[in-house]
Design a protein that fits this description.
The chain is of the alpha+beta class. It has nine helices and twelve strands.
């Protein structure tokens, strides 16, 4: 009998390359997971820094229920149905644009030039934005009748939240305060925002904010964008300013959703959370961003409160 010859068994053709491709894919996935985890931790640290700037008095006010004249009137009228409780996922957020500046003398809080009440209802896919005039005459708790922006100067964001809750009857859950520098940095981080400027805006009187903007569709960077949304020295006064602010925010939202958002995101996040104060947590922002990207423009309603103007 002839002896058998034993031959080495070779792997299937291309097996080595398949194994290399498999391990390479696994390594790439691990890198992506590690990168995503690192990015999330970095994002959380940015949000945490903005949380630390929140006055404890703000947290106390947000956790309390408003004393609403609107609810009281409805409750006294037997024909009016009792107000329905809010869905627990509904958010009422007060956005304050403050003029806190490093060179302020003797002013602890500055003033709130912008007061916007935002209502987010994820179940109904609805976003409501209500702008309140800074000169609206209201009852400021503990101080009597004052302009609504006086609440910020007298007691900061906590007193402003309490004042808006008492005025509207809305239970405010969260707050965001944005200062001048944050607005400019965010606009610049987006590479500017294209806005259709309706007319010429010009003021060279140093008593007021200087501005020089020509009409037409144009790219506004930080400083010019801030001048545009803050200008109010015309016949429309604060009402015109509120409309410009809402118009600018709409344009910013639409243009921020571009294809290059991923590349702008790190700078945008740094610009945002380096300058704002908010009680919203990292996961809140992620959920809101995911919801906002999918929200249709026709599910957004912007309202400005208007009234007669008198000098008192």
């Amino acid at each position: 009998m002839k002896p058998y010859t034993v031959y080495a068994v070779e792997g299937k053709p291309g097996g080595r390359w398949k194994r290399a491709l498999l391990w390479g894919t696994v390594a790439l996935l691990l890198i992506l997971v590690a990168g995503a985890g690192g990015s999330y931790l970095w994002f959380r640290s940015q949000v945490a820094a903005s949380n630390e700037r929140v006055d404890p008095a703000v947290i106390s006010v947000l956790s309390s229920k408003p004393t609403s004249t609107l609810v009281a009137v409805a409750a006294e009228d037997p024909e009016e149905p009792a107000p329905e409780p809010d869905d627990p996922d509904v958010m009422n957020i007060l956005v304050l644009g403050s003029d806190r500046r490093a060179d302020d003398d003797g002013e602890k809080f500055g003033r709130s030039d912008t007061i916007i009440l935002v209502r987010i209802d994820p179940h109904k896919d609805y976003l409501g934005i209500l702008s309140l005039p800074r000169d609206l005459r209201v009852a400021v708790p503990g101080y009597g009748r004052e302009k609504i922006n006086a609440a910020f100067a007298l007691g900061g964001p906590a007193l402003t939240i309490q004042t808006v809750e008492d005025l509207t009857g809305v239970d405010i859950n969260h707050y965001v305060e944005v200062d001048f520098q944050a607005f400019k940095d965010i606009t610049d981080a987006l590479g500017g925002v294209y806005v259709d400027v309706d007319r010429r805006y010009y003021n060279d009187d140093p008593q007021w904010e200087l501005i020089k903007l020509a009409p037409g569709y144009q790219l506004l960077h930080g400083a010019d964008a801030l001048d545009y949304v803050r200008f109010r020295h015309d016949l429309n006064a604060d009402f015109g300013r509120m409309l410009r602010q809402q118009r600018f925010l709409s344009a910013m939202r639409e243009q921020a959703m571009g294809w290059d958002l991923t590349f702008k995101l790190p700078r945008l996040i740094s610009a945002l959370f380096h300058n704002i104060s908010t009680d919203l947590q990292a996961n809140d922002f992620i959920s809101l961003a995911y919801w906002g990207v999918r929200l249709s423009g026709d599910r957004i309603r912007q309202v400005s409160l208007e009234a007669a103007t008198d000098t008192i």
